[in-house]
Design brief:
The complex is a heterotrimer of chains A (about 260), B (about 400) and C (about 300). Chain A is an alpha/beta fold. Chain A contains ten helices and ten strands. In chain A, about 40% of the residues lie in helices and about 25% in strands. In chain A, the strands form two sheets. Chain A has a six-stranded mixed beta sheet, sandwiched between helices. Chain A has a four-stranded antiparallel beta sheet with strand order 2-1-4-5, covered by helices on one side. Chain B is mainly α. Chain B is globular, with a radius of gyration of 24 Å. In chain C, helix 7 crosses helix 9. The longest helix of chain C has about 30 residues. The chains are: A alpha/beta (about 260), B mainly alpha (about 400), C mainly alpha (about 300). At the B-C interface, helix 1, strand 1, helix 8, helix 14 and helix 17 of B face helix 2, helix 3, helix 4, strand 1 and helix 10 of C. The complex binds adenosine-5'-triphosphate and magnesium ion. Magnesium ion (MG) binds next to helix 1 of chain A.
Amino acid sequence: MSNVLEVKNLTMNFGGIKALDRVSLEIKRNQIVALIGPNGAGKTTLFNCLTGIYTPTAGDIIVHPPQGKSRRINGMKINQITELGLARTFQNIRLFGGMTVLENVMIGRHCRTKSGIAGAIFLPKSTRGEENDIVNQSYSILEYIGLTKYVNDLARNLPYGAQRRLEIARALACDPQLLLLDEPAAGMNPQETRELEGLIVRLRKERHLSILLIDHDMKLVMNLAQKIFVLDYGEEIARGTPQEIASNPVVIKAYLGVETDAEIN
Amino acid sequence: MKFAEELKKSFFIASWFILLTFPIMVIQVNTIENIVIWRWHNIILIGLGSFAFSFCWQIFLNKKSSTKLIAPAGLSPLNRLMNEPRLYRPALIIIGLAALIFPFVFSHYQINIMTTALIYVMLGLGLNIEVGLAGLLDLGYVAFYAVGAYSYALLNYHFGLGFWTALPVGALLAAIFGILIGFPVLRLRGDYLAIVTLAFAEIIRLVLENWNAFSFGPSGISNIPRPGFFGRNLTPEQSAIYMYFLLILLCLLTIFIIHRLQHSRIGRAWVALREDELACQAMGIDKTKAKLTAFALGATWAGMAGVIFAAKTTFINPASFTFLESAMILSIVVLGGMGSIAGVIIAALALILLPEYLRVFSDYRMILFGAALIMMMIFRPQGILADMRKKYEFHKTEDSRTIKRDVL
Amino acid sequence: MNYFWDLFLGGITRGSIYALIALGYTMVYGILELINFAHGEIYMIGAFTALIAASLLTMQGLSGPAVLVLATVVAVLYAAAYGFTVEKIAYKPLRQAPRLSPLISAIGMSIFLQNYVMLAQTSDFLPFPNLLQNVELPAFLNTWIAPAEFMIILTAASLMLGLTLILKFTKMGKAMRAVAQDRTMAMLLGVNVNRIISRTFIVGSVLAAIGGVLIASHVGRINFYIGFGAGIKAFTAAVLGGIGSIPGAMLGGLVLGLTESFATGYISSDYENVFAFALLILILILKPEGILGRSSQQKV
Ligand SMILES: Nc1ncnc2c1ncn2[C@@H]1O[C@H](COP(=O)(O)OP(=O)(O)OP(=O)(O)O)[C@@H](O)[C@H]1O
Ligand SMILES: [Mg+2]
């Protein structure tokens, strides 16, 4: 299996703070990879580097699109990276609150469509067709995620769990090959988390997506991930299968913060 | 109990305001003749006014915070009326007919006022693209208006360009200005953008005022021709009627175009940009491009309005293009409801016509605008007519869905 | 050389006033991320109350430094009260609102205050008594600097020093810095954020009022509109130095004052304001974080 994304020695400094320190990881096609670590470990920062929101201080981020040649995306504009097939959700939900649920998803179609101002004003057949497609595709994504009952509601009026799922729906509309989910289960009740787990499995199976997942819910992570990377203070401290990670003393120490004599290098 | 407390609080606040406004409201010094005028009656006015005001203020704030969770995003009765085809269709027909017969019923003077108001409708709708849709707070909108007006005036003065040629040229020049200004500043954060556009507009005004060789300075340019009617010259009365209908047509065109834009891919991108710039980019929208188109389109309308303004008044000078003008257009957009076409039209007509017909309003116009901006932000940020999002209805057919448009 | 020196002094004088007003912008921005558009109006109201107080006092037969001091005290008290009230009315209800709302409210407040003074007082320019004239300077200074300029620079410098000390060492200053850095955190640690915000407005208004009195008596006339220009210029100074940074505002004020002074002196006096605005635009385009501001990435 080939990689969709490779990260090599990624470093991100904020003034004095090293939020990421020579982090390397790779994600294979159609694989679910999890990124875990204590609060402030640098997980979200890594997402921000991958999606162009921050320009990393050093290192390489290389995307391998399914067709076409590999691209180093450091310093590229956020929207260009989305076009290359990386779409994300935000840890602190950032929906377009004043727009309807359907419109939120329709925005995701923006970079896959192209009618411009003249099209908008004169509404030629091509624009009408495109607009129709946008609506229909967005609606079927909502069906897929199970949000159809909210179609015309303003995003800001949605219950919390639905907002998290709408974030995913919106990202899906961008037609990504790699989906980056930043704590999608945060604030969800067990029932919702279970549904989310099912959804993520389906996304991989039915939509053939690769997924990079951040979450603090260990059960969710262990159930879903084929591979886990652990960050602490911006450094990778472990990687491996869920079983390996669960029994790794370094990881346990990082999470519990206990001093153990047996420090493993 | 609670009532008594509120009364007490209002009383306290009223005393505070009496104290606060004392030197400005009560004392008036004349340093030349060395006399002081004490206007004690103002104390009573301020006291009663702020008492009532603070009382209402508290009631409204309480109401606002208690209903916030339940109310379905503050639909005004006006909004609901607009959603009822049986009501708004006849209303539209009546308004249309009234607009048609207006110039034949009312005097020359009234027609001119109405034409001015229509110019502001255009300006409001144009600025609405920038502020209301794309969330770009442009405090220097008047600069583009000035570009349009001076384009026509100068091109006509030097090259004898006619109104109909100048109209697209002025619009284009304003758009180019919009892009030139927009390009460097659009990457700035929202509030910086506000100040930079303000600074730009002031620079343009100051240049117009001081560069006599180019713009004839503060004395301005006069004898700008009114638009001809298929080569014929019109009397001022005919011309006024002509201008009036011209503006009605242009406003209709504006409404049509903006309505189409609003519900297009580009329009949605603007609104998303207004809602959350970063998420918008993360969804694959090119921020710079989206902002630049909004800015340039907004400028285009100001440019057109500028050409028309110059043709209508036949005289322009830099004094017509001050910050207060920008503030007034901004008030129109904010009061009307950001992003709402009908709201902006109502607000433009109200803000321009009320001061003309009610003298009280004309004296206190700006102070009321200021107060209204604050009140609107606190109590009704969505404006008198909230921007309604388009709704879709989906019906299952065999395997595909049909779309039904519901609300405009 | 003499011309140069005059321009230099003029620039520093102006600059220190810009700096005084800029401090209000920078402190408020540091805490609320809000351009307090009405700040220039507070300065104008300060100048107006001083004018009224000074005229009343002069008519009572007082003269000299006593008038200056008393008028300044009145101006400071009133400006502080206005700053406090403005925040309570126009900004406090909008703490949770989208970013543009408080800014629009601030613009509304600015327009309101301007017109309030215009309607209640006058739209004409009023002559402002030159209160700084009677100050006597030692002979060795007198050849170099006019008393008024000396007083302005001295007052501004000592106020800025005072502010720096307050922010560094007092409890209130520390709380202010804490709120500026992380409002939620400061609140969790028991800082009364609303009170700190109010005090920030009060401190900013006090500085602006003193600036207002100084410049009004230097220039010799005021009207309701002086706050607009001074406000934008002071804001320019704040941005120039790096908005949110206290030393930045001081430096920015001086740089702006000097630029204006030299540009009007050597290029053209017609375009006095154009230079300031052009400088603002250039800075924002070339170095939006300002001279002393740190470029920070928005946390996501
Ligand atoms: N824009 C920024 N400027 C300065 N420091 C930042 C910035 N963004 C993140 N940091 C710092 O980088 C470190 C890592 O933060 P990050 O948000 O990536 O953590 P995280 O692993 O996502 O934590 P959590 O599980 O709480 O979401 C933190 O110390 C944070 O304060
Ligand atoms: Mg995080």
